[in-house]
Amino acid sequence: MADTTPNLHLPYILPSQAQKHVMHNEALVMLDRLVQLALEYEGDVAPGAPSEGQRFAVGGAPTGAWSGRAGQIACFQDGGWLFAAPRTGYLAYFKDSGVLKIFTGSGWQRPPLPDILTPSRLGISATPDDTNRLALSSPATLLNHAGGGHQLKLNKATAGDTASLLFQSNWSGRAEMGLSGNDAFSIKVSGDGSAWATALHCDGEGRVSMPNRPLARAHRAAGTSTPASGSETGFAALALEQGGFALGAALAGGGNALSVPADGLFLAALTVIVTTSSGFSVSLRRNGSVTLLTVQGPTAAPTTASGVAIVQLYAGDHLSLLHGGSATIDEGSGRTQLSLFRL
User: Fold this and answer.
1) Residue ranges of the alpha helices (H) in the chain?
2) In the predicted structure, residue 2 carries a pLDDT above the cut 80
3) Domain residue ranges in the chain
4) How confident is the model at residue 5 (pLDDT cuts 50, 70, 90)?
5) Is 238 exposed, middle or buried (0-12, 13-18, 19+ CB in 10 A)?
6) DSSP string, 70-93
7) Does the pLDDT value for residue 342 go beyond 70?
8) How far is it, in rounded angstroms, from Cα 126 to Cα 21?
9) Strand, helix or coil for residue 156
10) Phi then psi for 238, rounded to 5 degrees?
11) Between 90 and which of 86, 172, 276, 330 could a Cys-Cys bridge form, CB atoms 3.0 to 4.6 Å apart?
């Protein structure tokens, strides 16, 4: 029979042994050193003023009082150092880092996670909750492939539910992309986190639309008009409007100016149909001073004159028509009209 236990090497009290209390107390001391192991730190240099009972993990290149004790456990007791060799599988709490480590036979390491981990909540430098059961606070997130491609899957229960990516500013929503309340892919934006506008909509057939892209088709009421040369006229109706175009101030020559809702490059198309003419021109003007596009026609009538231009417009600009020469203009939807859309 061996003189010590196989795992902790505690001394047995042997038959007919004198001073049995010595062996018993030695075993208690070893238990006190190694059971419920809590180490102050791992290092190569002993502390200058250790406290009774403090334990340390000796590093790989110890010096001074720990010289020659690499990899062992050092315990300060009765004014001196006692040492014990850890065995594979020992668990110890490291007070300096606040982590639990396991002795692998060659060093102390944090225990690995199991291959399959199914916690109800997981927070990485963040606190999860009932809704955000996975919470991460980090400068960046990497989702890498494992030998090939990589898919990020967002699944929802029914068409009326939502599967989307929400982008926030100071915890207030500003943009969202995905399947929001239906099975069409959309990109929505918001300036305040409460009112949302759809910037792009793509249905299941791959048809793409931009419901808030600024566009308009403006015209005067059906009939004819004969604007004086040098007069400025506007529009009476919007046969097509999207993205905030509106009729603005009334103009002396008739109709209203067309108000531009947003900055950008616009495609402008002006069509003028005349029934009688002695030679005419019609110019699209910005803010009553900048000519953007001019169409003109000869004395022969009836005739149709049209022109197209890419123009820079700004939110708050107003558009009007400046007339030159003399002509009777055929007004109305599908007749004389201005078409605009933002590129």
Assistant:
1) 20-34
2) no
3) 36-109, 159-212, 215-342
4) low
5) middle
6) TT-EEEEETTEEEEE---TT-EEE
7) yes
8) 53
9) coil
10) -115, 105
11) 86
